[in-house]
């Protein structure tokens, strides 16, 4: 349970005060505001603020494309058109601000997405809490033998026990030493900005993260993907649920064109045309490498199962 | 008068519907929403949406700096501290979306500020209106003789008449030919994306422009400055009035530290120390070039008068 | 012929001095350095500088992915893998700096690509030359009747004559008035920053444009596309030729996966699977709108012909 | 000693091959190419590539500002002018690519500078080396009592011993367990992407970091500052030495206007004017808070001593 009683009280307080506004309001998003969605063992995602809705995307597109956009029958059709033709700027007109609590090694992946605004809790100035990510047993994946980027089956039995014991013991010991080095109140101790170097990467940090919808969808496409590391994917999945309620038309278009879609190369399209004419194309006759052919077959055989 | 009856009706409609929200609300900004602030002869600035307020800046800073920020007595003090020490990320946590109508040559300056989201009216797809910026007589500045970047005194009498006649006549003739080349409805004519090349740079365009507060203040520092071209400065001035109502603490800090402040070089600081000790420093003994010394004297003599 | 004798002499001078360097050198690119590639009637593209080559992309990828990248047999295979899986950061490790001379209405499209560095000739400080883009007769496209974004067939005969006469006459007259308003040397005239507003959008400007390879390829995908406006496409085509000589592996991968490839939606992939099993899918049974279905058929029928 | 024999051999190999180029060459930079500058106990900074030199800054400025820039007598004068008046785009026309080895907690500060290209060694795919930052005794700063952001005097004697012992022991134990969890070759073990979470923040990582000169100078202003954390400041200092050799005019202007300069608020400038007229201004009569007044006095009393 990731929320302290104080945090729960803060959320209830924030949710108890409604105010009047002339701005665009997304009812689906209002329900999410401030509420913490639990992720992993101590993490969460909270919506702090948002700007715009599906209509705001269309409004911006209509400024740009003028009469052309009026021939599209309705907002959902227009949003699908924009997504299909890679018109990114109308989606940039919506913005979201999240409060996220997450392990440091997840934060390090996340921050590579540079087109966003971030305010992270500073371990230079403040003391980190004793909270570490310890995986569930079924998330204790073994290194894949066939694929050096992914995970194989979960560890089991004593091996799993041993790993969990190591992670817990090292985290606790490192944190004990962190506290010890910092020293008690009133006593001089090692500077916080130095002591933090003893803390392992499964310690939790938190930040405010603000991003426009276009860049958020790009983030989600990469991080809610089956090939993303499980520990960041669960955050992306939680945010997907939020976005689906915030801008339902945009999210459905995103699912169809991005998450469920695939990009085929000129070579692959050529093979496809030959196959549709009845030719039995094989890897050897495809012009693709073995790796490409395997991926191409994967696309033709159906969507990748999440987690597979 | 920049607004058509349709636009006025749209604004009144948008302002007549208030809705409930749990988000942060800036009362000062709600008064501006949708209302068009006239700028130049046909231009305007309209606030379409905003995110955050002064409190949101502090909230983000407190996530980052933790207990350190609590020692600052209040929100205004904290905001001043952040501005003084160039902490930019908390200001990035506020966002504004504007609808701006502006001459193309102003738009070309404006767009150089790259950290913003833009949806511009497309002259590829749509037909531009017959609206051109024609300066007021007292804005018809002569080229400065001493300063190749600025303006001298205004042209007068017949010379001013002649310039205004040229600008008006060429604009009208070019627009007549634009319409003629495009052809009438139902008749085939030159593609719009080509015909637009005949239109001069004082024609009006419009766009949605969305930017975070940090980057907006950077824009305002450069464009509300006395050295900015008058035609973009009036837009910056109009936006300054909006920001002052939106985030009054941040705007006051911005006025003190940025707009009214000055950056002194190491050489200039050294001169200053000598002067405070009673030494009579001259350009020759200052270590500065003539240009630098003139600027240094300007700072010591007091704020530049806008428009001077 | 876009180059003045002075520019030609400058290029010859720059090309006559070779120096020694320890940096990565792309032989293909050295041949392009400084040479102006003519585009349109007065425009050009010149390579001013570059950083990196195909090997630099691999070098950066190997820092990131370590041993994983060694299993890929060679540099071209690795580059294809990176492109196929949307690994953008290794491509960001190459950089190019171009000097481009282009009509203002093309510059306005180009500048929407924000992730680049730009230094444009300033009409605030300097006087623009009397050079305007006047299309070739076969580029005088009519507005398409079926597609409000594109061009139809070229205008012909008297209609073409009339359009060309308008474009030439208005350009010359506006430029005459520009010169007249500015005044002669020694005489006070209208400030340059104001006088420029009388110049139509087919006047030429120029800039230095610096961009990394990832963002350049994104630009090329959109602007070398058959749907891009002809006047920007010819610049993109010229740059494609340069990139093909600079980073030949990366460019071939780009052609296969991006320029010649296509993204299919989940719905389209589902149709494809049904078709490969022998089902006769129609628009009515596809789950796609008419517009989507038309585009889907276009992909299955083969690559779009440039200019069609 | 941060370099392995393999790395040393690689550097020697890279430095032994000179090639011819037509590009701008900075002799000062050629001497740095590939050579590793040691930083901290195992870290380094290596120049991998660069684009441009002082002349390239002026060349880009002259495209923009045309004749205006010719009135400035020489390149150094022009560069000083550009720096003084915050013209950032000409500095963006130079680019540098560095290979940096640095502790993770330093990397986490560094990455907040978002306008750069990064390829980091991936602990998802590869195994991290057993290398940890262990501070020198005189860098073992105590937490400052008066300033919650900085460091006080160094710990001494047994307290220092104890801290060093903790840092070393925890690093070694965590790394032993990391190896143990990963398992030996041929044996299935925990996925690398999970095992890395056990590693503390003083472990070394490495990346390629590419940035333009304008953004690099902004980074250096913040990170070579006396208030920056010592462990990132030593990297910034090493890079300052490189930049001084690469673009000596730009670096000297940077030292004068940025590193050694100071920004004064409108209120501070007003006080200064009163003081220069002979008034004895005190904090009480200054209109500044106590904190601001203290900083103002610091500026008037002379440059902050690094490390103070």
UniProtKB/TrEMBL annotation, chains A, B, C, D:
Catalyzes the reductive methylation of 2'-deoxyuridine-5'-monophosphate (dUMP) to 2'-deoxythymidine-5'-monophosphate (dTMP) while utilizing 5,10-methylenetetrahydrofolate (mTHF) as the methyl donor, and NADPH and FADH(2) as the reductant. InterPro entries: Thymidylate_synthase_ThyX, Thymidylate_synthase_ThyX_sf. It comes from the Bacteria. PROSITE patterns: THYX (PS51331). GO terms for molecular function: flavin adenine dinucleotide binding; NADPH binding; thymidylate synthase (FAD) activity; thymidylate synthase activity. Belongs to the thymidylate synthase ThyX family. This is Flavin-dependent thymidylate synthase. Binds 4 FAD per tetramer. Each FAD binding site is formed by three monomers. The active site is at 223 (involved in ionization of n3 of dump, leading to its activation). One of its GO terms (biological process) is dTTP biosynthetic process. Its cofactor is FAD. NCBIfam families: thyX (TIGR02170). The lineage of its organism: Bacteria, Pseudomonadati, Pseudomonadota, Alphaproteobacteria, Rhodobacterales. HAMAP family: ThyX. Pathway: Pyrimidine metabolism; dTTP biosynthesis. DUMP binds at residues 109-112, 120-124, 196, 223. Homotetramer. Its EC number is 2.1.1.148. Keywords: FAD, Flavoprotein, Methyltransferase, NADP, Nucleotide biosynthesis, Transferase. Pfam families: Thy1 (PF02511).
């Amino acid at each position: 349970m990731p929320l302290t009683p104080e945090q729960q009280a803060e959320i209830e307080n924030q949710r108890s005060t409604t105010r009047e506004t002339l701005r665009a309001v997304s009812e689906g998003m209002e329900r999410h505001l401030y509420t913490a969605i639990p992720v992993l063992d101590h993490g969460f995602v909270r919506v702090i603020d948002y700007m715009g809705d599906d209509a705001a995307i269309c409004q911006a597109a209509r400024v740009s494309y003028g009469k052309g956009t009026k021939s599209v029958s309705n907002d959902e059709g227009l949003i699908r058109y924009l997504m299909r033709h890679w018109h990114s700027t109308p989606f940039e007109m919506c913005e979201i601000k999240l409060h996220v609590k997450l392990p440091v090694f997840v934060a390090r992946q996340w921050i590579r997405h540079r087109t966003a605004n971030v305010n992270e809790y500073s371990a230079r100035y403040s003391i980190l809490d004793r909270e570490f990510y310890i995986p569930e047993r079924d998330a204790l994946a073994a290194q894949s033998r066939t694929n050096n980027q992914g995970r194989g089956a979960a560890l089991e039995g004593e091996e799993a026990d041993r790993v969990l014991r190591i992670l817990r013991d090292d985290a606790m010991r490192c944190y004990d030493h962190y506290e010890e080095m910092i020293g008690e109140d009133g006593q001089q101790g090692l500077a916080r900005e130095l002591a933090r170097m003893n803390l392992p990467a499964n310690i939790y940090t938190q930040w405010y993260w603000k991003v426009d919808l276009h860049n958020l969808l790009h983030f989600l496409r990469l991080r809610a993907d089956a090939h993303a590391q499980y520990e960041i994917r669960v955050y992306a999945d939680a945010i997907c649920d939020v976005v689906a309620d915030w801008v339902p038309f945009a999210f459905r278009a995103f699912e169809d064109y991005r998450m469920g879609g695939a990009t085929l190369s000129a070579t692959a399209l050529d093979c496809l045309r030959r196959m549709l004419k009845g030719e039995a194309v094989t890897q050897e006759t495809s012009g693709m490498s073995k790796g490409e052919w395997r991926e191409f077959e994967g696309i033709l055989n159906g969507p990748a199962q999440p987690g597979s």
